Give the backbone structure.
Amino acid sequence: MLDTIQLRHCRPLPTPQELQERGFTTVCGHAPLEGTSKWKNNSATLINRFPRLTWSRDRENRGWLSAEVSLPKLLYGSNVKLLGEGDLLAGLETISELIGDATGVSFPALSARVGRVDYCHSWQVGEANVLGYIAASARSSVSRLTRNVLAETTVNFRNKSRAIVIYSKYAETADLLRKEKATEQDLIESRGLLRLEVRHHTSNACSYLAGKLGKDYPTAENLLSASASRIVLENALEVVGLSKPVTTVDTRIERLAEKFTGARFLALAGFLGVRDQFGDDRLLKLGLIARPTYFRYRRLLKDVGISLETPAQKSLPPLSLSSSPKSK
């Protein structure tokens, strides 16, 4: 439903002394001056769940208090679990209370303007099928968004203000666990999860979205709802090609062409093809490739996230917001 959001209210910027007493520091890190126009709250970096606060002044001399937070992390301590529809209002009320305590000013979250919103959904497809769905989405093109494939575990379509991301939640959580930003329980719960996120990064993107939804203003009440989430996510499923049955295919050569050109591309493409036919042992025993060259090619492919293994072709069921396909 929802992950990270940013909410804003127009609130007068306090004096530097008052801001410092509330735990704010200048964004630039320089000594505060009377005219300093952007401040952040230090406590946000110390507590992962706490909203990241920014207090700034715009060109029209208006003060803006902003709060950015992952709603599932705020309520559950992790964003592996999806936000429940019944918990949305509780999350917004918690934000209002936390910001009121931290700043001493009123911050009714429901009426705040939205400066960022990430809609999301997860499907338990089984770990063996996650990469198949990701590879299938990588063959799609989305108008006005640039496609980027990261290793085999993430595909994103993005521009400066919006992004559609399909990724392995297990791979992301494993990386966070190595950085001590996730738990072993998070890793267990993320296994087999395919995650779709539609991110609106800027206030302009949120205003545009509000208009498409028939709303006058990009407020939390208008954008942070189950109905808005469903509309956005169902559209994303359709444009990335996952709302219909998909057949997994070998996309390694296409991805190779995105990373290499000329003689290097031809050499690595040929290496993959010959290896698929003969296997590692026969490839080396027959002397079809020198051992140093073999290991150099393996390393090059690994560095750009291209697997040596030929993916098995199979059909995968379509995805919808109402159910998860059965893992196989």
Observations:
- The chain has a mean pLDDT of 90.
